[in-house]
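Sharing in case it's useful to others searching the archive later.

Someone asked me privately for the predicted structure of Long-subunit fatty acid transport protein, so I'm posting the question and my answer publicly. Question first, with the sequence:
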Amino acid sequence: MIRKIVIAIVYITTVGMYAQDGTVSPYSFFGIGDIKSTSTVENQMMGGIGVYADSIHINLKNPAAYGKLGLEVMDKEGLVTYTAGVSNKQFTLKSFTEEQQSSVTTLDYLALGFSVGNGLGMGFGIMPYSSVGYNFVEERTNTSGSLTNVYNGTGGLNRAFYSIGYEIIQDLSIGATVNFNFGTLESERLQQVEDIQFGTFDRRSSRVNGFDFNYALNYSPLIKGNKRLHSSIRVNTQGNLVSENDRQIGSFSVASGVTIEAVEVNLAAQNLSNTELKIPTTTTLGLGYGEDYKWFIGAEYSFQQMSSFENSFLGAESVTYEDASSFAFGAFITPDYDSFSSYLKRVTYRAGLRLDKTGMLVNDVDINNFGITFGLGLPLGRSFSNLNLGFEFGKKGTTRANLIEESYFKINVGLSLNDRWFQKRKIN
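And my answer, the predicted structure tokens:
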């Protein structure tokens, strides 16, 4: 069993390593890039909510959920859960005058969680945190002729994390996650004027790293017999990131693209060689109701003081920030998780929706994101392992004020594989 798990994880990792850039969104031009989902396929397909916790799935958004791992399914012998996910996202980018299509395939997460026993669980893993991947052209006309700016950006931040959760008393759990964020953000602007032989370039690079922490409290008592109330509060503390910056300006041949002259900018003289990026604290409140392993319905509300965010080195003049918020709704149903006669009755059916107010105002227009999600959890044999398939339709941005509207369709594939991490010897 373990050998099969390792082979599956190595395969998924290889797919992710050779995947395309993490995004093609023009909105990754702003801030630290396009913020990625930090949840498993199971949670993503319920609108991304993290209030629900059970004993056989890792919940990457809610560290208190690790206190439930292994309980009720492995007695006192412990459980180890491997989880990994990949996705393919099809984009349709539409302006007021034209439309383009593109796609990206990425490794979304790779994690391991295990039960230590007595209500204590731990986990660790890695995932992308943000992605930069834009390429767009801006054209202006003035008395000197036509002016063209070409903007390109690549890179992003990754996140390595370690989580611990503990059930203090029955149905009350606490948890914490430490996240280490690291990566490089790169941007380039090429500028050329009509009928001028040479153009100019401005290249910037930021090597970013830093920590943030996620704290969670879950309370999930039984009420009305076998029905359970789920509630949680999670606080993702301010991310204090340090950015080591470089900037190069120069000229190039418009005809050949060859660099003519390049100069390293003295950022130290401008106090920009090392800057701070502070990602504001996010607070999430969750509430749900359901019957264990059969059905669940829940909602979450998140808010973030994004108005305090600033990127003094890679900042853009056309963007301002205001407080961000998000509402998510999700549900699942498993007709009969223990059925011997029907495989379809053991399948878990999930659905949800979310509305994100990102906090970005570009050209004084709010940039919002709306998504509808649904998916299937397919059992693998008679074990607690499953293959999860998810789908999401969504739209971000608008064509107003010369902006871009993103319509997207996302396909997720995730594995949640379970085994005992130790067994007591039966014979000495």
